[in-house]
Amino acid sequence: MKRVWIGISCAGMVGCLWAVAAAGSSESPAKIDSVAWLAGTWVGETGSPPYSETWGKAINGGMLGMCHMTDKKGAPFYELILIEETPKGLAYRIMHYTDGMKAKHAEPKVMQAIEVGADRIVFMESEGENPARISYRKAGADRVVARVEHVRNGKATGFDIPLRRG
What we know:
This protein is 15% helix and 50% strand. With 166 residues, it is an alpha+beta fold. It has two domains: 1-28; 31-165, Lipocalin, CATH 2.40.128. A ten-stranded antiparallel beta barrel has the order 1-2-3-4-5-7-8-9-10-11. It is globular and about 45 Å long. The model is unreliable at 1-26 (pLDDT under 50).
């Protein structure tokens, strides 16, 4: 039984390594134009608490975004976001601020794109004790769904933010 388990484990590891090598060798890194559909102003469809996200046009390998919302206590909360081309592909850099533009952390959190398609992009954080994923997907001509996922205390949690053009 022990030999069977070792064989299965080794085969699985080799398969994973092969998939990573194949993915990295044949494709060139995604360009910022592949997420140009995200440009514009988006507002939360649920209405409470208010939420808006605005993305500028793709310029020189980057797109600048900003988000305005309120936290659970009703206090303002802001995000400044940059999606940029890097040698590894698209990266999502995000800073969080409270009222008065007080930074919640010293350095931007960085997530690399792990999936880039014509109507979906997924970024994943690879460092830290509570890794996060952020994704955007088109849900129609004037609709986008943002999804935020975290691992907290060993449990995966997530929520969708349905948005419409504002």
